[in-house]
Amino acid sequence: MRSLLIKNGLLVDPVAGENRADLLISDGRIARLEARLAPPPGCEIFDAAGLWVFPGFIDAHVHAREPGAEDAETLASAAAAAAAGGVTSALLMPNTSPAMATPALLKKYRARAAGLPANLYFSAAATAGRGGKKISNLAALKAAGALAFTDDGGCLPRALLGRLIKETAALGLPLLDHPENFRRTGGGVINAGPAARRLGLPGIPSEAEALAVLGDILAASSAGPLHLQHLSLAASVAALRAAKRAGWPVTGETCPHYFTLSDADIKKDDASYKMKPPLRSPADRAAVLRGLSDGTIDLIATDHAPHEARLKTKGFRCAPFGIIGLETLAPLCVTELVLKKRITRRRLAQLLSLNPARLLGLRRKGRLAPGFDGDISVLDPRASRRVPETFISRSVNSPFKGRLLKGWAAATVVSGRLVFRAP
Fold it and tell me: Are 376 and 89 in contact (CB under 8 A)?
């Protein structure tokens, strides 16, 4: 029976809080947590002295690009990047080519993902082919292994949203929406604000997100649970806060770039800063930070969106939207949130472990407790390191290259197996 003993670390559980103890994983599950544990015969030992030990981080918003854009990313490279970033599980979005919209395709790529260094789970298209015209065969997609439904990259159609919410709720799977009014977005490529005016670029008004968020919340108020993806606006955070106070079943996520950057950081026409929704104003960034600290925002996800370098050199007008994020998730959260005392370590464990596990119905993940899966993220809060120019990911489209950060992954454990160990 394979076993791993993590010794001398600061254990951070999202429910029980912090405890300096040893943690024993046996046969893929957490077996014991005690102040001092003797290793069983043949046990592998990892010394976590000075390190923070979290339940495995779960990224609920990742684009792996396979099938259709394997030059940018594959299942294998995404899983390796996740492991190197301390991410033990990732939910993949269905806007592949072809879209992850049929049971046969879902089964094929789930089989390809088996045995990779991180757990890769799949969401399926909420509407047939992500076309927004007809609801997918949701029951068949669930039977094929879908863990969630979304048309990410496209906003769920208002005419179908109420039915979609009710049908996904009946199946016990979450419905995720990319809230964007595309008529308001138009040809915009950057937040409508000072940077857009300075660079002479067409702007995306805040109403493109805000109106869609309000429509989603109103639909959920009468139909059932709905999860809002990549919130970037003060208005979106305020709407989510009000919905929760009213008791409506709405949850929301944001991404590291929305609490670390704003459009004031865009100094030139550099598409490494081009994502959707776009980087917003400094006031919006401050509101996102408040939403993370006061419990309004439920989880942090990367919206990891790799693209080939040749495409990202085309500037804001022509380059695709999106940045990578799996390998910088942990250090950005530690540096910008925990070390700056905006949130506690326990709150970080809720945002990156417990809450995404609950959203996705991963009942044995998200805690450091006996019986839970042996998925562990070990971070080093001490050593400073700059974000490199190259990544484990096949892509390099990151606005954080060169940034000095702490909290990098020291080790990543999946089902009791060390899948990454920092050099």
Answer: no
Phi, psi of 189 (to 5 degrees): -130, -5
User: What local confidence, expressed as pLDDT, does residue 88 receive?
Assistant: 99
Residues with Cβ within 8 Å of residue 203, at least 6 apart in sequence: 188, 190, 191, 192, 193, 196, 197
Is the Cβ–Cβ distance between 3 and 28 less than 8 Å?
no
Catalytic sites, residue numbers = 303
Task: Name the segment(s) of the chain with CATH classification 3.20.20.140.
Answer: 56-359
Confidence grade of residue 273 (pLDDT, cut at 50, 70, 90): very high
What percent of the chain shows pLDDT beyond 70?
100
Measured CA to CA, the distance from residue 109 to residue 132 in angstroms comes to 23
DSSP track, 104-163 = HHHHHHHHHHTTSSSEEEEEEESBGGG-SSSB--HHHHHHTT--EEE-TTSPPPHHHHHH
Placement of tokens 């009000």 in the chain: 242
* φ/ψ bin of 130: left (φ > 0), alpha (ψ from -120 to 50), beta (otherwise): left
Indicate whether 82 pLDDT > 90. yes
The mean per-residue pLDDT over the stretch 227-240 comes to 98
Question: Where along the chain do the CATH 2.30.40.10 domains lie?
Answer: 3-52+373-421
Alpha carbons 133 and 159: distance in angstroms, whole number: 9
Indicate the pTM of the whole model: 0.98
| N residues, the chain | 423
10 Å Cβ neighbour count for 1?
10
Q: Which CATH superfamily is domain 3-52+373-421 in?
A: Urease, subunit C, domain 1 (2.30.40.10)
CATH superfamily of domain region 56-359: Metal-dependent hydrolases (3.20.20.140)
Tokens of 54: 């979290």
| Class of residue 389 by CB neighbours under 10 A (exposed 0-12, middle 13-18, buried 19+) | exposed
Q: For position 41, what pLDDT does the model report?
A: 94
